[in-house]
Amino acid sequence: KAKVLRLTQTAPPQQLFKYGMLWLIPCFTGGYGATALNMKRDPLKLKTGEAEFPLTLGRDVSGVVMECGLGVSYFKPGDEVWAAIPPWKQGTLSEFVVASGNEVSFKPKSLSHTEAAALPYVGLTAWSALNQVGGLNQSNCSGKRILILGASGGVGTFAVQLMKAWDAHVTAVCSHDASTLVKKLGADDVVDYRSGNLEEHLKTLPLFDFILDNVGGSTEKWALDLLKKWSGATYVTLVTPFLINMDKLGVADGMLQTGVTVGSKTLKHLLKGVHYRWAFFMPSGPSLDEIAELVDSGKIQPVIDEVFSFSEVPKAFLKLEGGHARGKTVINVISKQ
Protein backbone atom coordinates (compact mmCIF):
# COMPACT_ATOMS: atom_id res chain seq x y z
CA LYS A 1 0.00 0.00 0.00
CA ALA A 2 1.17 3.52 -0.73
CA LYS A 3 2.23 5.73 2.15
CA VAL A 4 0.34 9.03 2.29
CA LEU A 5 2.07 12.19 3.51
CA ARG A 6 0.27 15.45 4.29
CA LEU A 7 2.46 18.41 3.36
CA THR A 8 2.81 21.75 5.12
CA GLN A 9 4.31 24.97 3.85
CA THR A 10 7.44 24.37 5.90
CA ALA A 11 7.94 20.82 4.68
CA PRO A 12 10.39 20.12 1.83
CA PRO A 13 8.86 19.13 -1.52
CA GLN A 14 7.87 15.49 -1.49
CA GLN A 15 7.48 12.77 -4.07
CA LEU A 16 5.82 9.37 -4.02
CA PHE A 17 7.79 6.57 -5.61
CA LYS A 18 6.80 3.10 -6.56
CA TYR A 19 10.12 1.39 -6.54
CA GLY A 20 9.26 -2.23 -6.26
CA MET A 21 12.81 -2.98 -7.36
CA LEU A 22 15.55 -3.39 -4.81
CA TRP A 23 16.24 -2.01 -1.43
CA LEU A 24 19.37 -2.16 0.58
CA ILE A 25 19.13 -2.58 4.32
CA PRO A 26 21.87 -1.04 6.48
CA CYS A 27 19.43 -0.68 9.38
CA PHE A 28 19.51 -1.17 13.11
CA THR A 29 17.03 -3.73 14.39
CA GLY A 30 18.05 -3.75 18.05
CA GLY A 31 16.94 -0.22 18.97
CA TYR A 32 20.38 1.40 18.58
CA GLY A 33 20.00 5.17 18.22
CA ALA A 34 16.31 5.16 19.18
CA THR A 35 16.54 8.26 21.41
CA ALA A 36 18.11 10.50 18.77
CA LEU A 37 15.94 9.24 15.94
CA ASN A 38 12.71 9.56 17.91
CA MET A 39 13.64 13.14 18.81
CA LYS A 40 14.10 13.90 15.13
CA ARG A 41 10.83 12.20 14.19
CA ASP A 42 8.80 13.91 16.91
CA PRO A 43 10.74 16.81 18.51
CA LEU A 44 7.70 18.20 20.35
CA LYS A 45 6.64 14.76 21.66
CA LEU A 46 3.15 15.13 20.20
CA LYS A 47 2.74 11.46 19.37
CA THR A 48 1.90 8.63 21.75
CA GLY A 49 4.49 6.02 22.69
CA GLU A 50 2.91 3.56 20.26
CA ALA A 51 3.20 5.90 17.24
CA GLU A 52 6.75 4.74 16.50
CA PHE A 53 5.50 1.41 15.16
CA PRO A 54 5.02 -0.13 12.69
CA LEU A 55 8.45 1.03 11.52
CA THR A 56 9.56 0.26 7.96
CA LEU A 57 13.25 -0.58 7.71
CA GLY A 58 15.64 -0.04 4.80
CA ARG A 59 17.48 3.06 3.57
CA ASP A 60 18.44 2.65 -0.10
CA VAL A 61 15.99 2.74 -2.97
CA SER A 62 16.05 2.67 -6.76
CA GLY A 63 12.89 2.83 -8.82
CA VAL A 64 10.34 4.89 -10.73
CA VAL A 65 8.60 8.15 -9.73
CA MET A 66 4.84 7.69 -9.34
CA GLU A 67 3.71 11.10 -8.07
CA CYS A 68 5.31 14.48 -7.33
CA GLY A 69 4.36 17.17 -4.85
CA LEU A 70 3.56 20.70 -6.06
CA GLY A 71 7.01 21.94 -5.05
CA VAL A 72 8.89 19.29 -7.03
CA SER A 73 10.12 20.69 -10.34
CA TYR A 74 13.11 18.54 -11.29
CA PHE A 75 11.32 15.19 -11.53
CA LYS A 76 8.15 13.85 -13.11
CA PRO A 77 6.22 10.58 -13.00
CA GLY A 78 8.05 7.86 -14.90
CA ASP A 79 11.57 9.11 -14.11
CA GLU A 80 14.00 6.41 -12.95
CA VAL A 81 15.64 7.63 -9.77
CA TRP A 82 17.61 6.53 -6.73
CA ALA A 83 17.88 7.86 -3.17
CA ALA A 84 18.92 7.15 0.39
CA ILE A 85 16.18 7.91 2.90
CA PRO A 86 17.32 9.36 6.26
CA PRO A 87 16.87 7.08 9.28
CA TRP A 88 14.30 9.30 10.98
CA LYS A 89 11.84 8.59 8.14
CA GLN A 90 9.99 5.41 7.25
CA GLY A 91 12.26 3.12 5.27
CA THR A 92 12.32 1.53 1.85
CA LEU A 93 11.36 -2.10 2.37
CA SER A 94 8.05 -1.38 0.69
CA GLU A 95 6.53 -1.07 -2.77
CA PHE A 96 5.89 2.65 -2.24
CA VAL A 97 8.29 5.14 -0.64
CA VAL A 98 7.83 8.84 0.17
CA ALA A 99 10.96 10.98 -0.12
CA SER A 100 11.86 14.65 -0.18
CA GLY A 101 12.75 16.03 -3.59
CA ASN A 102 16.20 17.10 -2.38
CA GLU A 103 17.02 13.53 -1.35
CA VAL A 104 16.51 12.12 -4.84
CA SER A 105 18.67 11.93 -7.97
CA PHE A 106 18.35 10.43 -11.43
CA LYS A 107 19.56 6.83 -11.40
CA PRO A 108 22.82 6.18 -13.31
CA LYS A 109 21.90 5.14 -16.83
CA SER A 110 24.52 2.39 -16.84
CA LEU A 111 23.03 0.52 -13.86
CA SER A 112 19.96 -1.63 -13.40
CA HIS A 113 17.77 -0.94 -10.39
CA THR A 114 19.33 -3.99 -8.77
CA GLU A 115 22.81 -2.51 -9.07
CA ALA A 116 21.76 1.04 -8.29
CA ALA A 117 20.13 0.02 -5.00
CA ALA A 118 23.55 -1.00 -3.68
CA LEU A 119 25.09 2.48 -3.75
CA PRO A 120 23.16 5.47 -2.30
CA TYR A 121 23.53 4.94 1.46
CA VAL A 122 27.15 3.80 1.46
CA GLY A 123 28.02 6.26 -1.28
CA LEU A 124 26.62 9.23 0.62
CA THR A 125 28.21 8.07 3.87
CA ALA A 126 31.63 7.84 2.23
CA TRP A 127 31.03 11.13 0.38
CA SER A 128 30.20 12.83 3.68
CA ALA A 129 33.38 11.55 5.34
CA LEU A 130 35.79 12.13 2.45
CA ASN A 131 34.41 15.22 0.75
CA GLN A 132 32.15 17.20 3.07
CA VAL A 133 34.00 16.52 6.33
CA GLY A 134 37.44 15.55 5.06
CA GLY A 135 37.66 18.22 2.36
CA LEU A 136 38.90 15.87 -0.35
CA ASN A 137 37.89 16.42 -3.96
CA GLN A 138 39.02 15.74 -7.50
CA SER A 139 41.33 18.76 -7.59
CA ASN A 140 43.29 18.15 -4.37
CA CYS A 141 43.59 14.35 -4.14
CA SER A 142 46.23 13.54 -6.73
CA GLY A 143 49.18 11.78 -5.13
CA LYS A 144 47.82 11.93 -1.60
CA ARG A 145 48.30 8.86 0.54
CA ILE A 146 44.95 7.58 1.82
CA LEU A 147 44.49 4.82 4.43
CA ILE A 148 41.09 3.11 4.57
CA LEU A 149 40.43 0.92 7.61
CA GLY A 150 37.64 -1.56 6.94
CA ALA A 151 37.93 -1.43 3.17
CA SER A 152 35.84 -4.44 2.16
CA GLY A 153 32.42 -3.39 3.49
CA GLY A 154 29.88 -1.20 1.72
CA VAL A 155 31.40 2.16 2.67
CA GLY A 156 34.96 0.89 2.31
CA THR A 157 34.54 -0.49 -1.20
CA PHE A 158 32.95 2.78 -2.32
CA ALA A 159 35.67 4.86 -0.66
CA VAL A 160 38.45 2.89 -2.36
CA GLN A 161 36.90 3.52 -5.77
CA LEU A 162 36.22 7.21 -5.10
CA MET A 163 39.77 7.88 -3.98
CA LYS A 164 41.20 6.09 -7.02
CA ALA A 165 38.82 8.06 -9.26
CA TRP A 166 40.40 11.18 -7.76
CA ASP A 167 43.93 9.85 -8.38
CA ALA A 168 44.94 9.22 -4.77
CA HIS A 169 47.27 6.44 -3.54
CA VAL A 170 45.10 4.05 -1.50
CA THR A 171 46.20 1.64 1.21
CA ALA A 172 43.30 -0.62 2.16
CA VAL A 173 43.00 -2.71 5.32
CA CYS A 174 40.76 -5.78 5.19
CA SER A 175 40.89 -9.53 5.76
CA HIS A 176 42.88 -11.78 3.46
CA ASP A 177 39.81 -13.32 1.85
CA ALA A 178 38.65 -9.85 0.74
CA SER A 179 42.02 -8.73 -0.63
CA THR A 180 41.31 -9.87 -4.20
CA LEU A 181 38.10 -7.83 -4.29
CA VAL A 182 39.74 -4.72 -2.86
CA LYS A 183 42.67 -4.95 -5.29
CA LYS A 184 40.23 -5.30 -8.17
CA LEU A 185 38.59 -2.06 -7.05
CA GLY A 186 41.91 -0.28 -7.46
CA ALA A 187 43.67 -0.27 -4.07
CA ASP A 188 47.43 0.24 -4.46
CA ASP A 189 48.35 -1.61 -1.26
CA VAL A 190 46.22 -4.12 0.64
CA VAL A 191 47.02 -5.05 4.24
CA ASP A 192 45.54 -8.10 5.97
CA TYR A 193 44.60 -7.05 9.50
CA ARG A 194 44.81 -10.67 10.67
CA SER A 195 48.43 -11.21 9.62
CA GLY A 196 50.41 -10.12 12.65
CA ASN A 197 50.37 -6.76 14.41
CA LEU A 198 48.46 -4.34 12.17
CA GLU A 199 49.68 -1.23 13.96
CA GLU A 200 53.33 -2.20 13.65
CA HIS A 201 52.93 -3.18 10.01
CA LEU A 202 51.33 0.14 9.07
CA LYS A 203 54.08 2.04 10.89
CA THR A 204 56.60 0.59 8.44
CA LEU A 205 54.80 2.35 5.56
CA PRO A 206 55.20 6.03 4.60
CA LEU A 207 52.94 8.38 6.58
CA PHE A 208 49.45 9.18 5.32
CA ASP A 209 47.64 12.39 4.37
CA PHE A 210 44.19 11.07 5.25
CA ILE A 211 42.69 8.16 7.18
CA LEU A 212 39.09 6.94 6.90
CA ASP A 213 38.20 4.69 9.83
CA ASN A 214 35.21 2.38 9.32
CA VAL A 215 36.25 0.13 12.21
CA GLY A 216 36.61 2.23 15.37
CA GLY A 217 37.44 0.62 18.67
CA SER A 218 41.14 0.42 19.50
CA THR A 219 42.23 1.65 16.05
CA GLU A 220 41.62 5.27 17.09
CA LYS A 221 44.26 4.95 19.82
CA TRP A 222 47.11 4.48 17.32
CA ALA A 223 45.84 5.37 13.85
CA LEU A 224 46.44 9.12 14.18
CA ASP A 225 50.16 8.44 14.70
CA LEU A 226 50.25 7.30 11.07
CA LEU A 227 49.42 10.79 9.77
CA LYS A 228 51.88 13.39 8.51
CA LYS A 229 52.21 16.00 11.24
CA TRP A 230 51.65 19.72 10.62
CA SER A 231 50.64 19.17 7.00
CA GLY A 232 46.85 19.35 7.21
CA ALA A 233 46.56 15.56 7.49
CA THR A 234 43.14 14.41 8.69
CA TYR A 235 41.62 11.42 10.46
CA VAL A 236 37.87 10.90 9.96
CA THR A 237 35.94 8.19 11.78
CA LEU A 238 32.44 6.93 11.05
CA VAL A 239 32.29 5.11 14.40
CA THR A 240 31.22 7.66 17.00
CA PRO A 241 29.54 7.50 20.44
CA PHE A 242 26.85 10.06 19.51
CA LEU A 243 23.85 7.70 19.31
CA ILE A 244 25.07 5.54 22.20
CA ASN A 245 25.42 8.63 24.40
CA MET A 246 21.88 9.72 23.56
CA ASP A 247 20.50 6.24 24.33
CA LYS A 248 22.34 5.96 27.64
CA LEU A 249 22.19 9.53 28.95
CA GLY A 250 19.14 11.04 27.29
CA VAL A 251 18.99 13.89 24.83
CA ALA A 252 20.46 16.78 26.84
CA ASP A 253 23.20 14.92 28.71
CA GLY A 254 23.97 12.78 25.67
CA MET A 255 24.49 15.81 23.45
CA LEU A 256 26.59 17.50 26.13
CA GLN A 257 28.77 14.42 26.58
CA THR A 258 29.16 14.09 22.82
CA GLY A 259 30.19 17.73 22.46
CA VAL A 260 32.76 17.44 25.24
CA THR A 261 34.18 14.25 23.73
CA VAL A 262 34.60 15.49 20.18
CA GLY A 263 35.82 18.91 21.34
CA SER A 264 38.50 17.50 23.63
CA LYS A 265 39.71 14.99 21.04
CA THR A 266 39.81 17.61 18.29
CA LEU A 267 41.90 19.97 20.44
CA LYS A 268 44.16 17.18 21.69
CA HIS A 269 45.11 16.05 18.21
CA LEU A 270 45.27 19.57 16.78
CA LEU A 271 48.01 20.32 19.29
CA LYS A 272 49.84 17.28 17.87
CA GLY A 273 49.60 18.61 14.32
CA VAL A 274 46.73 16.54 12.88
CA HIS A 275 42.99 17.02 12.39
CA TYR A 276 40.41 14.77 14.07
CA ARG A 277 36.87 14.60 12.72
CA TRP A 278 33.60 12.66 13.01
CA ALA A 279 31.38 11.98 10.00
CA PHE A 280 27.84 10.72 9.50
CA PHE A 281 25.55 9.74 6.67
CA MET A 282 23.89 12.81 5.12
CA PRO A 283 21.06 12.48 2.56
CA SER A 284 21.73 14.60 -0.53
CA GLY A 285 20.31 14.47 -4.03
CA PRO A 286 23.02 16.81 -5.41
CA SER A 287 25.78 14.54 -4.05
CA LEU A 288 24.06 11.57 -5.67
CA ASP A 289 24.15 13.53 -8.95
CA GLU A 290 27.95 13.68 -8.70
CA ILE A 291 28.15 10.01 -7.75
CA ALA A 292 25.96 9.09 -10.73
CA GLU A 293 28.40 10.87 -13.06
CA LEU A 294 31.28 8.83 -11.64
CA VAL A 295 29.27 5.63 -12.06
CA ASP A 296 28.32 6.36 -15.67
CA SER A 297 31.93 7.23 -16.47
CA GLY A 298 32.98 3.78 -15.25
CA LYS A 299 34.96 5.01 -12.25
CA ILE A 300 32.67 3.53 -9.59
CA GLN A 301 30.79 0.25 -9.66
CA PRO A 302 28.40 -1.31 -7.14
CA VAL A 303 29.68 -4.16 -5.01
CA ILE A 304 26.85 -6.55 -4.17
CA ASP A 305 27.41 -9.35 -1.69
CA GLU A 306 24.04 -11.09 -2.09
CA VAL A 307 20.49 -10.44 -3.34
CA PHE A 308 17.45 -11.70 -1.42
CA SER A 309 13.78 -11.81 -2.35
CA PHE A 310 11.27 -9.86 -0.26
CA SER A 311 10.11 -13.07 1.41
CA GLU A 312 13.69 -13.66 2.59
CA VAL A 313 14.05 -10.39 4.54
CA PRO A 314 14.59 -12.16 7.93
CA LYS A 315 17.32 -14.27 6.33
CA ALA A 316 18.94 -11.12 4.94
CA PHE A 317 19.02 -9.46 8.35
CA LEU A 318 20.56 -12.56 9.92
CA LYS A 319 23.28 -12.38 7.31
CA LEU A 320 23.95 -8.71 8.10
CA GLU A 321 24.15 -9.45 11.80
CA GLY A 322 26.85 -12.00 11.07
CA GLY A 323 29.13 -9.24 9.75
CA HIS A 324 32.05 -9.55 7.30
CA ALA A 325 29.97 -8.59 4.28
CA ARG A 326 31.74 -7.97 0.98
CA GLY A 327 29.78 -5.01 -0.29
CA LYS A 328 26.04 -4.63 0.12
CA THR A 329 23.02 -6.86 0.72
CA VAL A 330 20.06 -6.12 -1.56
CA ILE A 331 16.35 -6.90 -1.19
CA ASN A 332 14.33 -7.51 -4.38
CA VAL A 333 10.86 -6.23 -3.47
CA ILE A 334 9.25 -7.27 -6.75
CA SER A 335 10.55 -9.53 -9.48
CA LYS A 336 11.17 -6.79 -12.07
CA GLN A 337 14.78 -5.57 -11.96
Compact description:
It is built from 11 helices and 13 strands.
Helices and strands, in N-to-C order?
Answer: EHEEEEHHEHEHEHEHEHHEHEHE
Q: How many runs of DSSP E, i.e. beta strands?
A: 13
Identify the quaternary structure here. Answer: single chain
Q: What is the mean predicted local confidence, pLDDT?
A: 83
Cα separation of the termini? 20 Å
Shape: globular
- Poorly predicted residue ranges: 1-12, 18-28
Beta-sheet strand percentage? 15-25%
* Cα gyration radius (Å): 20 Å
Largest sheet: 7 strands, mixed
Helix content: 25-40%
Number of helices: 11
- Would you tell me the structural class of the helices and strands? alpha/beta
Transmembrane segments: 20-37
GO cellular component, one term: mitochondrion
Family: Belongs to the zinc-containing alcohol dehydrogenase family. Quinone oxidoreductase subfamily.
Protein name: Reticulon 4 interacting protein 1
Describe this structure in words.
It is a single chain. The chain has 337 residues and is an alpha/beta fold. The protein is 31% helix and 21% strand. The strands form 2 sheets. Strands 1, 2, 3, 4, 5, 12 and 13 form a 7-stranded mixed β-sheet that branches. The chain has a 6-stranded parallel β-sheet with strand order 8-7-6-9-10-11. Strand 9, helix 7 and strand 10 form a beta-alpha-beta unit. Helix 8 (242-249) runs antiparallel to helix 9 (251-270). The longest helix is centred in the C-terminal third of the chain and has 20 residues, at 251-270. The radius of gyration is 20 Å and the shape is globular.
